[in-house]
Amino acid sequence: MVNTLVFVDLPTPDIEASTAFYKELFGWEINGRPQGVFHEILPGGGPTLGLWSEREQVPDPSPRAPQPRSGFQPRTYILVDGPPGEYLNRAVILGATALWEQSYWEEFDGHHASFLDPWGNQIVMWWRPADR
User: Fold this and answer.
1) 3-state class (DSSP) for residue 79
2) Beta strand spans in the chain (E)
3) Which of the listed CATH numbers 3.10.110, 2.20.25, 3.30.720, 1.20.120 matches domain 8-53?
4) Region (Disordered) spans which residues (predicted)?
């Protein structure tokens, strides 16, 4: 396979707080590699997502000063095991900002909701009930 998506990294100024947020929200296993600099997230058992410190910027060989975010950001979709609205409520309690409540997307026959994490990363939670 060529030209396949391998990994997505979410930037954060506070990698330890981000790790705690995502562990609490989704129950993910997260490994510090190295601790406090880059954290590998293992949703569903495999590494497909990570957190990186805006200060360290590993593996960038020439780190730059962090820039303020503005405008649209990429969306990271997470397949959840229940209604996205339930996850959205927990995310908001943990400090996230709700972007939209759970709604049905007819074209893809599933439900979704979205938030900005406390560090400005947009997450969309996706769910399709198993009884379909």
Assistant:
1) strand
2) 8-12, 30-32, 38-41, 49-53, 75-79, 97-105, 110-116, 122-127
3) 3.30.720
4) 53-74
The CA radius of gyration of the chain, in Å to the nearest whole number, is 15
The reported pLDDT for the residue numbered 105 is 96
Taking alpha carbons only, the member of 110, 129, 117, 109 closest to residue 26 is 117
Average pLDDT of the segment spanning 121-130: 94
β-bridge pairing 49-53 and 38-41: antiparallel
Query: What token pair was written down for 35?
Result: 């601790």
The pTM is what?
0.91
In this structure, what token pair is assigned to residue 5? 């998506």
* Tokens linked to 14: 């506070």
CATH of domain 75-127: 3.10.180.10
